[in-house]
Amino acid sequence: MSEDFKITFWGVRGSHPVPGKDTIQFGGNTTCAEVSAENARIIIDAGTGIIELGKKLLSEHFSSKNPDKQLNIIILFTHLHHDHTQGLPFFAPLFFGKSILNLFGPINFGSELKLVLERSMTPPNFPIDFFQTNSMKKMYTINDSNEIVINSKTGDVTLLNKYHDKVPENNENLKIEIMNDYSHPANGVLIYKIIYKDRVVVFSTDVEGFMFGNSKLINFAKNATILVHDAQYTKEEYVALPIPKQGFGHSIAEMAIEVAKKANVKNLILTHHDPNRTDSELRKMQSKYRRRFKNLTYAKEGLTIEVD
Ligand SMILES: [Zn+2]
Ligand SMILES: [Zn+2]
What we know:
Blueprint: E1 5-11, E2 32-37, E3 40-44, H1 49-62, E4 71-76, E5 99-105, H2 113-119, E6 136-141, E7 146-151, E8 157-161, E9 173-181, E10 189-196, E11 199-204, H3 215-220, E12 226-230, H4 235-239, H5 253-263, E13 267-271, H6 279-290, E14 296-298, E15 304-306
Parallel strand pairs: 3-4, 4-5, 5-6, 11-12, 12-13, 13-14
Antiparallel strand pairs: 1-2, 1-15, 2-3, 7-8, 7-9, 9-10, 10-11
C-alpha cells in the first residue's frame, strides 16, 4: 500500500443524491470522503458515496494476501443528517463478519451516536436492524475535548481526552483534532483536522460563514495543506427572496475563500454542492473563483488529491 497521505472524494452533494445527465462530471452522491495514509483509512461521513467505497474495500480485502484477517474501518461523522448517513445501510462491510467498524460522531438532538444510527436502520423503514448486521461495531460519541490517534502501520485506534491524556509521540501516527461549530441547524457539526507527518487536512462541511470570517475555524485551519469547505449556495441564492438561504447552515464560495486566505491554507476544496447545480455551472464557478484563490478546486467524485 502507498505511503502517500491522500484524500479521495466519493460523494460531494448536499441534501439529496442527484443522478442524471447534468451531474455526471461532478457526481450525484451525497457526502463521503476517504483519507488514507499507509494502512490507515479514515472515512468521513456516510452519504450515498460510501456505497461504492464499501464495494471497493471488500473487493480489495478479498483479493489481499490474507482475506481471513479483520477489516478495520474508521468512520467519522460530521453530524447525523440524512445526507451524511443514508449510505450506511448499503455499505457492504457493515454486513461482513470480519469487519470492525469504529464509528465516531457527535450527540444529535440529545441522542448518542448509537441510538441515532440504530433508528436510521430499523424495521419497518429498513428490513434489517443495524445491530443485527454481522460486522463488529465500536461506537464513540465524541466532542471537541477528544482527539483520535490512529497508527498508520497497524490501523489501531485510540480515543483520547486532550485535557487528560498525553498524545503518544510516534511519527507513524495520524492525529485527529476536533472543532465544534454551531452554524448548522440544529446541533451544529464536528470539523475534523487530520494531521500526518506535518501535513494537515481540515474537513469542514455543513458550516455557514460569519462576517469577517469564522475566526475559530481560521485558527483551527491555520496553515493547513488542504481545507475542504462547504460552498452549497451562490451569493444570489444566499439573499434571494422569498426564501433566502441565509441561516440554512451552508456557505457561499466567498465565505470559504475568506477562511482559506486568512488561515493561509495551501489548497481549498469546495464541496456539498447544491443538488440543483449542474456540471456546467460548477465548471464556471470553479473558473470564476480560481481568480480569487489560485489553488481552489470544486470537489468531484473520484477526485484524489495528495496531501503534500
Ligand atoms: Zn449536508
Ligand atoms: Zn446537515
